[in-house]
């Protein structure tokens, strides 16, 4: 099963920009696809809005950025976990890895 990491972000979020320096690389290293959903990008936002609202029906409690680990984000999606807010690269890698299934070493 392929997992997708949806990053809900905003163009005016400094923390989101800082994490953008490494979040895609970390996701790729962990065999997950990262899709960046900028709130200002209405087409992309509209496409994944249902996933966000399933986790945050009124958007309360979201962090900036919010990462949702999802299978089948285009269809009958399942949310497997989330990460919220800024964190250093090592912590992001460790927390994201904990949400993804690990292959045989």
TrEMBL record:
The lineage of its organism: Bacteria, Bacillati, Cyanobacteriota, Cyanophyceae, Synechococcales. InterPro entries: Thioredoxin-like_sf. Gene3D superfamilies: Glutaredoxin (3.40.30.10). This is Thioredoxin family protein.
């Amino acid at each position: 099963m392929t997992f997708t990491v949806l990053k809900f972000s905003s163009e005016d979020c400094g923390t989101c920009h800082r994490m953008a320096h490494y979040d895609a690389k970390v996701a790729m290293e962990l065999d997950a696809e990262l899709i960046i959903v900028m709130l200002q990008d209405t087409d992309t936002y509209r496409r994944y809005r249902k996933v966000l609202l399933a986790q945050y029906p009124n958007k309360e409690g979201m962090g900036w950025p919010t990462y949702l680990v999802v299978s089948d984000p285009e269809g009958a999606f399942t949310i497997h976990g989330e990460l919220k807010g800024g964190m250093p690269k090592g912590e992001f890698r460790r927390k994201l890895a904990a949400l993804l299934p690990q292959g045989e070493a």
